[in-house]
Amino acid sequence: MFLFVVFITTLIYVFSKAMGLGLGVVGIALIFSGIASIGSYYYSDKLVLVTTGARKIEKSDNPRYFRIVENLCIAAGLPMPKVYLIDDPSPNAFATGRDPKHAVVCATTGLLSMMTDAELEGVIAHELSHIKNFDIRLAGVLAILVGFVAIASDIFIRATFFSRSDRNNSNAVFFLIAIAFAILSPIAATLIQLAVSRKREFLADASGVLLTRYPDGLASALEKLKNDHTPPRSASNATAHLFIENPFENKKVKNFFTSLFNTHPPLDERIKILRGM
Amino acid sequence: MNSLTIIILAVVGGVLLFTLFIYNSLIQARLRVKEAFSQIDVQLKRRTDLIPNLIETVKGYAKHEKETFTKVTELRTSLINAKSPEKKAEVNNMLTDALKSIFAVAENYPQLRASENFKALQEELEDTENKIAYSRQFYNSVVLDYNTKLQVFPNVLFARLLNFKPAEFFGATTDEKKPVKVSF
């Protein structure tokens, strides 16, 4: 997060120097990306649920799942979230909603049937920790910032094409740096966003364990997820970061480059840390 | 007004503001403790509500186990009447043990074990037991926060002055930390 602020500040500085007019344009970029992201922030819960085909359940529909959510909410001191279920044999779960009062917890039928109670508790505790740590809000803010970088770069590139003549007064070195920035920064911003997302996964693992007081539950749940190869039906690239494990993880390609673009840290690493607790 | 008076006034004002800030944060922490305790209370209440049903059901099949019933009923009453967290925790632990003996009694009556009503009650009680454990966990972590707040440095100077007392933890016996598991 700190890294991101430094990054954005540098970007603003370079752009404004290079263009010689600066901050007004930067403001416009921020407003644009802000509007787009606030919309998705307020409606994210509904949007995600529609795209994943989840349905809301009551206690009588699945007492076991519902009770685990209830119990862990009591332990975390959270209000009861809405509980959703996805009919999908592939095991997975996610949480969304902008704050604990508007939270949604969702699990697939595959997850419920595959996990023992202790494992399911571990998974649900992980999801509730995302809610408790305001990770959804953080992800929203990050999305605004990434969007801002993209739009700012775009404006800059367009502006340089249209106002080439009266450019003598601005610093030529800054101008070159700015062009490089304009091209590279949207990529860099996305990478930082993903890095933050991975860090929050570790945090959610840790605070989830604080709720259940039983690290082995989540660890063996993650092991089961690792060994499971049921293809997911309900996830798409856009919703991948929400789930407890990356639904599109390709087990064969594991180099530095792909791990840079993952929304989740590798399961092996998470299991290792949990086993060490 | 010379500069010395201004300095003194500023210092006094600063201390007052600081006290106010600490006071508010302590009040907030204490309210959280209270709220967390009411969560436990909700579950204890649910438990005491379930017990008469359970006894009625078991009585229908096992008439001769009067002693166990009286003990549970007594404990239930004293749990309802208990006021302090310490007392509640103690009686609750005793009640847990007494309930175990009821479920042990039930083992001897196959018809009772087969009864749908009994199964549902048993499940409910087990669930309540788990919820008591979880709400206690939350309560104790909130109490830990509050008590720490009372004892860290500048707060400790004001806490006693403003009449804040440390909160009690809701104790559990090591045995009681596990939910009642009745094997058939």
TrEMBL record, chain A:
Name of the featured protein: Protease HtpX homolog
GO BP annotations listed: proteolysis
Chief location category: membrane
Entry-linked CDD domains: M48B_Htpx_like
Subcellular location: Cell membrane
E.C. code: 3.4.24.-
Domain Peptidase M48: 62-276
Organism: Candidatus Woesebacteria bacterium GW2011_GWB1_38_5b
GO molecular function per UniProt: metalloendopeptidase activity; zinc ion binding
Membrane topology value: Multi-pass membrane protein
Binding site for Zn(2+): 126, 130, 201
Cellular component terms (Gene Ontology): plasma membrane
Homology family: Belongs to the peptidase M48B family.
InterPro entries per the UniProt record, alphabetical: HtpX_protease, Pept_M48_protease_HtpX, Peptidase_M48
Annotated TM spans: 26-43, 138-161, 173-196
From TrEMBL, chain B:
Coiled-coil ranges (or none): none
Key words of the record: Membrane, Transmembrane, Transmembrane helix
Subcellular location, record wording: Membrane
Highest taxon, organism lineage: Bacteria
Chief site of localization: membrane
Gene3D superfamilies: LemA-like domain
Keyword Transmembrane: yes
Entry GO CC: membrane
Transmembrane segments: 6-26
Membrane-topology descriptor: Single-pass membrane protein
Protein biosynthesis is among the record's keywords: no
Sequence similarity: Belongs to the LemA family.
The name this protein goes by in its record: LemA family protein
